[in-house]
Amino acid sequence: MKKMKILVIGASGLLAGPVIRKLDEKGFELRLFSRSVNPSMFINEYDIVQGDLFNQDDLQKAMTGCSAVHISISTNDDVAATGIIVNMAREKGIRLISMVSGCTVSEEYRWFKFIDEKFRAEQLIMQSGIPYFIFRPTWFFESLEMMVRNGKATILGHQTELYHWVAADDLGKMVANAYSIEGAENRIYYVYGPERYGMKEMLEKYISKLHPEIEKVSVAPIPVLKIMAFLTRNRTLKYAASLFGYFEKVKEPVIPEQELSRLGKAEIDFETWVKSKITEA
Fold this sequence. Notes:
The chain contains ten helices and twelve strands. By secondary structure, the chain is of the alpha/beta class. The protein has a domain at 5-140 and 167-193 and 254-267: NAD(P)-binding Rossmann-like Domain (Rossmann fold). The strands form three sheets. Strands 3-2-1-4-5-6-10 form a seven-stranded parallel sheet, with helices on both faces. The protein is globular.
């Protein structure tokens, strides 16, 4: 596939960095866009535009001169954000658009607001008339640090399901491969790592390597968290309780191996990933 200039929307986010690195390694020209993105976040120099995607002038400035758009965002209104991006993409003659979604996004689970937003955002892209890639990753190793706060490691709810935990670098590799392979367009790609762990077991392994001062992983019951969120009017806690309550009920989809390997299988296991984090530290 001919190399193109790709606009990465949400470039300062947790999952954008590895995508940017892998696209750069493939030789793509990049423009990075978010409200807080700045050159100090990256080793290499990039074309950077700071702005708000809900501001038409900012988005137009960012998209002008690009051939493709990669969306790596999480907002309170993914549908509105994606709609604005798709409309501008049509206006600017964008040739490819990609999006990071989630592995449980489906019609079946639209009863949960977060999933409904992602599902509807996916539909906007698929119905846009622009060739697309949609990536549905499972849980990332990088999310484990969010479960460590104030010297404590805590799981919200009784999480019993197993997940193919994946490294953000493997997502980046798959995104870059999709943009490099002819005929990869107009598909949904699941991003699963090579090993399966329960959430509590995964967090225990994580703290043993990176937070050895923490002796155990605690479990906070969802009903108690919801009461606390209501009494304190803590929206962040309310959202977290709802999200983990959802994952108490929903399983990671079973995806055939052949489908998982279309863009090259995710290869980074936990030990490899955590060694890289220890080296960085």
